[in-house]
Model the fold of this input.
Amino acid sequence: MKIAFIGLGNMGAPMAANLVAAGHQVTGFDTAGITVDGAAAATSAAEAATGAEVVITMLPNGTILRAVADQVIPAMAPGSALVDCSTVDVDSARIVAQQAEDAGLLSVDAPVSGGIGGAAAGTLTFMAGGSDAAFAMARPLFDIMGQKAVHCGGSGAGQAAKICNNMILGVTMIATCEAFALADKLGLARDKMFDVVSTSSGYSWSMNAYCPAPGVGPTSPADNGYAPGFAADLMLKDLRLSQQAAATADADTPMGALAQALYARFVEEEDGAGKDFSAMLPRFETRGHGG
Ligand code: NAD
Done:
């Protein structure tokens, strides 16, 4: 397939490299001048998109996605597909999908989980929103870049799945960290806390697979000085997207709102920027009752 790949950052570059390795003809574009071995380099997004059967975008946010969509959609041939893998707000995803549909294109919002490691290994999970035809066209590419692709529903459903999942993750990570900090003050050893909770009703991915306490449970960013992993800044971005969506959809999400406020304080006022999102544990350790 002729594929345009726009946004060759931490995630986009290894994803594009996997498409090249699978034998696809990839043309890349990134405003930072990043190139990928084996992929042709275009001088603009529109140039990359011209003649492509599928245009994939992997960009920082919805504003940039909408700007890039304005450039690439007019350059794309009817019947070709626009596949956005960025994590963006649901409204931007739906606006871009409508714009693509009006131009006779197929479109899929397909945010990913699995991080930089999953992008490099080709083991991402894709959560996709769009028509059956659009999903069918993108599916073989998801199978190269990932190990699982779920067709979640119509346009925006992929972004909805992503932000709901990450809202649960943000909330459970905070709950896990504050419980460890309480356990410390109650004189409970962390390994005993892990042993009990990881096999009791308080278990979660945050506790069992990504334990925020160093030296406890499987190896996680806590064992590496809280170098990310999944940065607190990115968690804050996703929590903001979930709260923006909750406001638009008139949904009551008090725990999500509190998680957003805590990560905002951590990243913007405390020393959380650039640390893994599980570094909430050392934050709680230093505090007393009532924050
Ligand atoms: P990144 O900042 O490393 O990459 C984004 C790239 O887009 C940059 O190289 C930038 O130069 C480029 N770019 C910006 N504006 C552009 C434009 N107008 N035209 C072309 N290129 C442009 O970010 P990333 O970590 O690769 O993340 C990309 C997306 O994936 C984000 O939406 C992020 O939330 C999501 N995501 C990231 C991770 C992760 O672990 N990094 C995990 C899941 C999802």
